[in-house]
Amino acid sequence: MSDSAPSGESKTRMPHFDIKIMGPAIALVLLCILGYVLNPAFVSEGNITNLLTRSSFIGIIAVGATFVITAGGIDLSVGSMAAVIAGIMIIVMNSAVGTFGTGVTTVLIGAGCSVILGLGAGWINGFLTTKGKIEAFIVTLGTMGIYRSLVTYFADGGTLSLDFAIRGTYRPIYYDSFAGLPVPVWMFILVSAVGWILLNRTAFGRYCMAIGSNEAVAKYSAINVDRIKTMTYVIQGLCVSLATIIYVPRLGSASSSTGVLWELEAIAAVIIGGTVLKGGYGRVGGTILGALILTTIGNILNFTDLISNYLNGTMQGLIIIIAVWLQRGEWGRSKRIKKAE
Amino acid sequence: MQGQSDSVPILAADRISKSFGSVPVLFSVSFDIRGGEVHALIGENGAGKSTLMKILSGIHEPTSGSIRLDGRNVDLPPNGQAEALGIVLIHQELNLAEQLTVEENFFLGRELTRNGLLDRAKMSTSVREHLQAIGLDISPDDRISDLSIAEKQMVEIVKAISRNARVLIMDEPTAVLTEAETALLFKQIERLKQQGVAIVFVSHKLAEVKAIADQITILRDGQLIATKPAQELTPDAMAQMMVGRELSDLFPPLIEPDIDAERVLQVQGLFAKGVHNISFELRQGEILGFAGLVGAGRTAVFEAICGISQMDGGDVRLKGQPVHFSSVAAARDAGMVYLTKDRKEKGLLLKQQMGINLTLLSLPKFVRHHLLNARQERDALERAIRRFDIRVRDHGVLAGDMSGGNQQKLLLAKVMEADPAIVIIDEPTRGIDVGTKQQIYHFIAALATEGVSIVLISSEMPEMIGMCHRVAVMREGRITGILTGDDINENEIVRYAAGLKKAGDDERLSA
Question: ipTM exceeding 0.90?
Answer without folding.
Answer: no
